[in-house]
Amino acid sequence: MGLIDAIRAERLIDQVSALSDLEDEPGKEIVRKLRSLDTAAIPKLIERLGTTRREEYQRIVEVLRRLVSEENLHFFMTALESDDSAVVGGVVQVLKGASGLDANRLLPLFDNPAVSKPALLAVLLAHAKHLNAELLLRQSSKLEHGDLSMLFRILGDAADESFIPKLVARLDARNPVLRSEIARFLSRFNSTLAQRALHRLLKDESKAVRLAALEGLTRIGATMDVGELCELLRDADLKLQAKAVDALIQLNHPDTVRYLVDLLQDESEYVRRAAVEVLNEIADSRAIKYLLSAVKDKDWWVRSRAADALGKVGGARVIDAVVRLIQDEDPYIRRSAIEVMSALIEASNRRGDRSQVRRSFPHLLKALQDPDWWVRERAVDSLAELGDKRAVPVLIRLLEEESATATGTSRRVARRQAQGEGTNEINPAAQMVLVLVRALAKLGSPEAIDAVLKHLREGDEVTKKAALEALRDLTDERHAAQVTAAIQEAVRGGSEGLLAAADEALRAIERRCAEAERAGTGSAEHAELLSEADSGIRRPAGALQFEEVDPSRLKPGDVIGDRYRFVRQVGKGAFGAVYLMQDLMVDEQVILKFLNPQMAADEAALKRFIYELRFARRVTHPNVIRIYDMLQFGEA
């Protein structure tokens, strides 16, 4: 009978390949006959999975799916030992789609080294709700690390909250991957027992387990001890440390500052950085003295973030303390202090209330004499933001001094180069001239026009462009004729970039005079003179236009570089301002960070940024902001 059944089975299997549909009557009849030949047919059908053509493969899988049962399951269990991936793959499809099977019968296969564990787990996942969770958990010690996550995924469907004690009993398992998976499983349940177990795992020797426990507690919104969270900031794993920072910020507990005091004195700069990151988000007046101490930290990041936090806190106490720090002996502390003051002034401008920051005026004037170039430049910027026109005469005098210094330095460098001496000497006074011209423009006093016109006539191209930009804002109807004539004379024979800047400045002045005429405060003669002067320096058609960008002037909808549309400012820090842009070329939102002028002029800093860019642009981790490129817009 065995031989005859085998021959019949072979013939029926050959007919399967000719079937168009297993649901029509001929198809159903063949399946019935194959079922009657169960023992003879199923091994041959399984064998065909390894030899059949691609188009017939799925039809055999469907036939086997109709034939599989508790009685013949052992054939399929044996087939999972096959070295033929086509056979194993087909059997997995059959068992996944089978109904009415007791999948617990497959669990002993974990002890069979010939059976593919990923294939077995794929089958069990399809029947997870009918598995014995305790029996399944016992298999965890037999799996490779990579398969444990799938096992616990199956447990997620097979087990419920009543299974938690079984998992808690395994918290001391030797395998850290197993403990990590237990932590992730426990985070599905917001029960007292699960929370207690996760808190215990926060002290696990494995950083992966600690991270999984913290993520779990955060996910279920568990009650977190602020002291325990603060201690996690000392963790050597930076990913866990960052997660603890996020948790502390979200918790925003009133006692957080008290626990951070010791962390701000920790030997590790990474611990101090983490502590100041928390303060930067949750700090209030109670944190002022600790932030002021952090401003003196030896690590630049800690100083910078503490300065940002103080700028957010604000208030008279911060202003008075920062004023004292501006006079500190340490130049790096003075730099941080002047950054805080700048942030305080900007915050007051946004609120429309400068009453408290006005007291900084005399101290900012004094800072103009600071020996450190950074402090001087930021003091100029802060005075411009403060908007007190009493600073104009002082800044004009300083502009004359810095201009003379810059000229002397340029001549000395040129002389050395003419003598064949190489020099990398930086000219900070030349950068200060640009900063002063822009500050005078922001203060908006026509009193500065003559000083700016001098630099339009005598400066290099970069200085002339800055002067044109300033004159665009400074020139009122009374000075329009004088400024127009000076611009026309100064840019004659200049480069395309200079002509473009002059064209833009004259258009702005022309619009202002036209508005004044409509308002009854201007004259038609001035407008006519401007129009004639403007047409006299028009750029030739088709000439290349160079775009100069001042990010502080950007308005929503403005496009720079014919590519980036301004959306909004995201933030501002010690190194520059961050803006959200729409990249019109690829239709995606990107972030552009514009370096502060003093940072952009620091050759050493730029070299460091370029060095970091080479590596940072390769980072593709989803939790890390990727840096794509460093761009330059005109001379900006």
Question: Could you describe the 3D structure shown?
Answer:
By secondary structure, the chain is mainly α. The protein has 32 helices and four strands. The protein has a four-stranded antiparallel sheet with strand order 1-2-3-4. The longest helix is centred in the middle third of the chain and has 28 residues, at 391-418. The model is unreliable at 535-546 (pLDDT under 50).
Largest sheet: 4 strands, antiparallel
Termini gap: 92 Å
- The DSSP helix count reads 32
Strand order of the largest sheet: 1-2-3-4
Specify Rg, calculated over alpha carbons.
37 Å
Low-confidence stretches: 535-546
Report the principal-axis shape.
elongated
The overall pLDDT average reads 81
Content-based structural category? mainly alpha
Approximate helicity band = 55-70%
Which strand-content bin applies to the residues? under 5%
Keywords summarizing the entry:
636 residues, mainly alpha, Phosphorylase Kinase, domain 1, four-stranded antiparallel beta sheet
Compile the SSE list and pairings.
Blueprint: H1 2-16, H2 25-36, H3 38-48, H4 54-67, H5 73-79, H6 85-97, H7 117-126, H8 133-137, H9 145-158, H10 164-168, H11 176-186, H12 192-201, H13 207-219, H14 226-232, H15 238-251, H16 256-263, H17 269-282, H18 288-294, H19 300-313, H20 316-325, H21 331-351, H22 361-367, H23 373-386, H24 391-418, H25 428-443, H26 449-458, H27 461-474, H28 480-490, H29 496-518, H30 524-536, E1 559-560, E2 564-572, E3 576-583, E4 588-595, H31 597-600, H32 603-616
Antiparallel strand pairs: 1-2, 2-3, 3-4
Helix pairs in contact: 1-2, 1-3, 3-4, 4-6, 6-7, 7-9, 9-11, 11-13, 12-13, 13-15, 14-15, 14-16, 15-17, 17-19, 18-19, 19-21, 20-21, 21-23, 22-23, 23-25, 24-25, 25-27, 26-27, 26-28, 27-29, 28-29, 28-30, 29-30
